[in-house]
User: Fold this.
Amino acid sequence: MDYPTFAIEPRQQAGSLVLHLKGELDLAAREPLLQEGERYAGAASIVFDFSEACFIDASVIGALFRLARLMRDRGGSLTLVDSQASDRSIWRLTRYPEVCPVFVSVQEATTALGS
Assistant:
């Protein structure tokens, strides 16, 4: 039996919904990530925190592009946090920060959302 090597934990922090993502975010994490993001897509903003992710697959980035478009269509916004962003080539290779800002802390992201 295969066990998930990832976790998605929704929390409220500084008045924003933060989805904390942990572990290996590969193809197996794509659908659960989409389902969780779609569940909250009516919220004004969602912060996805990748700081505890040890791996991020391109399929997860594809899901983020889809969720960013969905959030925009519903009048919300999607923001990312990754304290390891400067060390992860996936953000640079996919050019995702051109679509959605990537902050280094949840506090920085929630402050930017409140501006």
Q: What stands out?
A: DSSP finds four helices and five strands in the chain. Helices lie at 27-39, 58-73, 89-94, 106-114. The longest helix spans residues 58-73. Residues 2 and 61 are 23 Å apart (CA to CA).
